[in-house]
Amino acid sequence: MGPWPNDPLGPSARASADIYWIMFVAAVIVLAIVDGGLLYAGIRFRERPGHVARQFHGHNLLELVWTVVPTIMVISFSVLSFQKLQIINATSTNAEMTIDVEGRQWAWSFSYPKEDRFKLNDGSYLVTGGQLDIPVGTKVRIKLTSPDVIHSFWVPNLGGKKDVVPGRPTETWIEADKPGTYKGQCYEFCGTGHANMLITVVVHPKEEYAAWAQTAVAAANQAANPATKAGRETFLAQACAGCHTVQGTPAQGKVGPDLSRIASQTTPIAGVLSPVNEENLKKWISNPPAVKPGTIMPKLNLTDQQINDIVQWLLTLK
Ligand code: CUA
Description:
Strand order of the largest sheet: 3-2-1-5-8
Mean pLDDT: 90
Largest sheet: 5 strands, mixed
Radius of gyration: 28 Å
Low-confidence stretches: none
Bound molecules: dinuclear copper ion
Structural class: alpha+beta
């Protein structure tokens, strides 16, 4: 996948790329004419032995040209931008699917439509973190909210680059021409975790999307299991999620080890935590520096209940 202006892979990105190239080429032509003329005149008419630089005062035709041409160009660009923005901003026209996207410090979460195919056992609907899965050739309306600071949703090859503003819902849309994995990024500096606020869009062939939804719902049901639900929620609400990644959740931190499969890991976690069992995990979480002097994971002052909940959940991550 190339840079988006060369490789727009959906209608919204294509609208941006079209206008990008038209303006880029026009700007290069203007640059060549203006700077070329400047260089030519500077060399051709300069004062030198046997040649006196002549002073000119006004040139009606020239002044008319450099007033009229830029005026026409600016008007054309305005009309063109307006037309392309009509496409880019038409978020609800013919949208086949709507995803509620929340950007927060520092993770994305994607809430799928309230349809049976996304329904969990507890009556709620599928929510995923970090990765958005959509069917190919489908216009997906993206509704954006933020509970903290301004973020920006952008998946360059598909579209977007829309600010996510606290207290003011915004929206954009994406559509992919072909299946694949598309990378995106929060495009508004939002704090220390900004650079890691990545977006992955996985585009499935239409006939495979239902199967994906089934798998994702099954995984979410497992995660919502009452025995481990409290731990998962505590983990996501506390500082843990800012530093650790757990695939399939909004926790996408990169500072600490990835815990997606911690329960089946055989090499010592952080060099010291082995084997992964209830006792060792509890000892570690209640006071990491006591187990490993110099570790950057601080003592979090969690209650015994919170520690127990988190450990019960971690032990299910295989
Ligand atoms: Cu969120 Cu930058």
